[in-house]
Design brief:
4 helices, two-stranded antiparallel sheet, 2 strands, globular, mainly alpha, 5% strand
Length: 81
Amino acid sequence: MSTGITYQYLESRPTSLYRQLFLKGTRIRAEIIYWAHINAEEPRTAEQVAADYDLPLPAVIEAIEYCKSNPPEIAVDIARE
């Protein structure tokens, strides 16, 4: 998992099969938020994604930035799927 960075809205789930970070207090993986944001058919702004998932805007922005940093744990999750 990514190290050296402290996230306010993201957390790991040691009991999950997924290694990527989740939004705190939810079962929503950061990758889900990112894909909603960059969806080729209907891209959404961070504000729209926050409204869609009833999340604070800073949490959505943090999830998007985390995914943009290309953390290796997301690649591992994708390869396993």
